[in-house]
Amino acid sequence: MPEITFVDFAGNETKVDVPSGTSLMQAAMENMVEGIEAECGGSGSCATCHCYLTTDWHGKISDPDSNESDMLEMVTEPKDLSRLSCQVLVSDEHHGLHVHLPESQY
């Protein structure tokens, strides 16, 4: 089972074992990780599960589709590797992934 590390804006880390096929948002919610609001419940329509991936994972996670890209235009602190955590599904190859959370969701 992949271990994912959620990092809040202050640098505090929460390590979570995540079953493959689970979204990053769902993993955060089930493990009470602060900084993921998930107001729409994972439908990709609110951007309150915004997160940042690190450059070492670029290309190992699918690119956002057009709907996710449109929603990412609404976030207050966008970066090149911004994602909606509800749209990123964990697989076994994601063991060790670090997911950074923006200050705006606290």
From TrEMBL:
<feature type="domain" description="2Fe-2S ferredoxin-type">
    <location>
        <begin position="2"/>
        <end position="105"/>
    </location>
</feature>
<dbReference type="InterPro" id="IPR001041">
    <property type="entry name" value="2Fe-2S_ferredoxin-type"/>
</dbReference>
<dbReference type="InterPro" id="IPR018298">
    <property type="entry name" value="Adrenodoxin_Fe-S_BS"/>
</dbReference>
<keyword id="KW-0830">Ubiquinone</keyword>
<keyword id="KW-0479">Metal-binding</keyword>
<protein>
    <recommendedName>
        <fullName>2Fe-2S ferredoxin-type domain-containing protein</fullName>
    </recommendedName>
</protein>
<dbReference type="InterPro" id="IPR001055">
    <property type="entry name" value="Adrenodoxin-like"/>
</dbReference>
<dbReference type="GO" id="GO:0046872">
    <property type="term" value="F:metal ion binding"/>
</dbReference>
<comment type="similarity">
    <text>Belongs to the adrenodoxin/putidaredoxin family.</text>
</comment>
<keyword id="KW-0408">Iron</keyword>
<keyword id="KW-0001">2Fe-2S</keyword>
<dbReference type="GO" id="GO:0009055">
    <property type="term" value="F:electron transfer activity"/>
</dbReference>
<keyword id="KW-0411">Iron-sulfur</keyword>
<dbReference type="InterPro" id="IPR012675">
    <property type="entry name" value="Beta-grasp_dom_sf"/>
</dbReference>
<dbReference type="GO" id="GO:0051537">
    <property type="term" value="F:2 iron, 2 sulfur cluster binding"/>
</dbReference>
<dbReference type="GO" id="GO:0140647">
    <property type="term" value="P:P450-containing electron transport chain"/>
</dbReference>
<dbReference type="InterPro" id="IPR036010">
    <property type="entry name" value="2Fe-2S_ferredoxin-like_sf"/>
</dbReference>
<dbReference type="Pfam" id="PF00111">
    <property type="entry name" value="Fer2"/>
</dbReference>
